[in-house]
Amino acid sequence: MGSSSSQASLLLQKQLKHLCKHPVDGFSAGLVDEGNVFEWSVTIIGPPDTLYDGGFFNAIMSFPQNYPNSPPAVRFTSEMWHPNVYHDGKVCISILHPPGDDPNGYELASERWSPVHTVESIVLSIISMLSSPNDESPANVEAAKEWREKRDEFKKKVSRCVRRSQEFM
Fold first, then answer.
1. What is the edge-to-edge ordering of all strands in the sheet holding 27-33?
2. What local confidence, expressed as pLDDT, does residue 54 receive?
3. For 34-59, how does the pLDDT look when each residue is reduced to its tens digit (9 = 90+)?
4. How would you write 58-120 as a 3-class SS string?
């Protein structure tokens, strides 16, 4: 293991220990496999007073060997209908984009990944994303269009995701 991956491993173990001692409302997190601190299983509870309220959405956070210099990838394994979630479940929010200037010019460098982010701040950002989608630069164009133009259709699809997420709890 290189020195950056052992530093990443130590940091992730520290964050896991902190979350176990000080759980945060709205989600739970743990390792997918006790032998691999770079793969986390996260369950996000649908935020109250949102369309996702009552849901239990599972996701996998995959951390790179050079964490915290690079962001993890986060992918919902539960069915998810949201403008900022790709069809394969991958979450698309600014803080998960590589640090530095956006090659497409949509985001400020300050909105992108920074090593100050923790598992907690990432998951809280995803919870916030569920509460208020960004339909300006959507990962799921269909969901963004429905969110803007056919809110009833959007709500129906989200309700189905919430119901399905409850079946697995």
1. 27-33, 36-45, 56-62, 73-76
2. 96
3. 999 999 999 999 999 999 999 999 99
4. EEEEECCCCCCCCCCEEEECCCCCCCCECCCCEECCHHHCCCCCCCCCCCCHHHCCCCCCCHH
92 is catalytic: yes
Task: Give residue limits of the domains in the chain.
Answer: 7-167
8 Å CB contact between 33 and 39:
yes
Please pick, among 37, 45, 92, 143, the residue that the annotation labels catalytic.
Answer: 92
Dump pLDDT digits (tens) for 68-84. 999 999 999 999 999 99
CATH class of residue range 7-167: alpha beta
CA dist., res. 145 & res. 137, Å (int) = 11
pLDDT at 104 (0 to 100): 81
CA distance 116 to 105: 23
Nearest partner of 52 among 122, 131, 118, 106, judged by Cα: 131
Say whether the peptide bond before residue 71 is cis (omega within 30 degrees of 0). no
